[in-house]
Amino acid sequence: MKKTTAALGAALLALSAQSAFAQSSVTLYGLVDTSVRYLTNANAGNDSQIAMGEGVETPSRFGLKGSEDLGGGTSAIFKLENQFQLWSGKFDNSNNTLFQRNAYVGLSNNQYGALTLGRQQTPFFDMMGNTFDPLTVGDYWQDSWVYNPVGPFLFTNSSVKYNGTFGGLHVEGMYGFGGVPGSTGQNSMYGFAASYALGPLEAVAGFQQNDVSGKKFNIANVGAVYSFTPTLKVLAGWLHSQDNTGLADVDMQQSGAPTLAHVSPNRIDDSFYVGSTWQVTAPLALTVAGYYDHARNAAQLDGSLGNGINYSATVLAEYSLSKRTEVYGTVDFTRGNGAFLADYPGRNNQTGVAIGLRNIF
């Protein structure tokens, strides 16, 4: 018995020493966020709606991330991240994907950057969601519609991704394998983005191409952030997309919008945005954002192809109750004409008012 106890103790000490040497860590993290929202012209009868739903900026999620120190400034890393509907408890996707947002493993080096493999956010989404969009790519249709054409392509399965920072330069590149026998390009994707910070100014440029059964979706973007003070920033940018897949016309529509008779084989969108974030006081932050899009050769309600213009404006106020919890209120307005009439369930304009609560853990 003593020998068994001694052997067990030695094994535990060995495991403890190995763990201490490797400096492994696993972190459970996430956020929960929901809002109550009033929206005008929410259906074909132009009725108003009051409903509980997603947060204005941040969908609810939880995840696990970890790292293991391999020595020499290199670590093994992984992330598993799920997105869900707080108000219903359901997965926040139509195909019941468990780790919708991220599921990857890789290696990271302090000097050379990180290389990861799995399902991952694209460089475009990383840059816009983290830094260059005033609302960090919002969740309501009325403040995120400009991103709807690229919406299905913000995450990529079976991808390899590199990101690294060298002084003021940050670069990201990704390639997604299509997995189609006899065709390396079909259903594949590639994308890259680079940002550079110089004093109070930070700028970004990027490009992404997705193949869908041999047809292409392309998006290019440039943007900038200027910090007048540590608490006041202005942002602006341009997105240019060309869609040959026919998906953009459908993905641009709100829930309840009329069914399209046809989709465009070559839709082109030029979108512009401006905004500002201001930390008024320690607990209070204000954000204003405006989006404008000119669509060409887009599907219209009568089955033809044509042009259209859509624009929106959003004001968001956030008040921190603690480091992890905040309440917020937001007002938004959006209006469209031409081809964008196909994207509204009722009249061609909507006004939304919402209040919400967010907790980060």
From TrEMBL:
MF terms (GO), sorted A to Z: porin activity
UniProt domain Porin: residue ranges: 10-338
Annotated InterPro entries: Gram-neg_bact_OMP, Gram_neg_porin_domain, Porin_dom_sf
Coiled-coil annotated residue ranges, if any: none
Signal sequence, renumbered to the chain: 1-22
GO process annotations (BP): monoatomic ion transport
Intracellular or extracellular location(s): Cell outer membrane
Protein's membrane topology: Multi-pass membrane protein
Keyword annotations of the record: Cell outer membrane, Ion transport, Membrane, Porin, Signal, Transmembrane, Transmembrane beta strand, Transport
GO cellular component: cell outer membrane; pore complex
Gene3D superfamilies: Porin (2.40.160.10)
Main subcellular location: membrane
One Pfam family it belongs to: Porin_4
Self-association state and partner proteins as the record states: Homotrimer.
Protein name: Outer membrane protein (Porin)
Organism of provenance: Paraburkholderia megapolitana
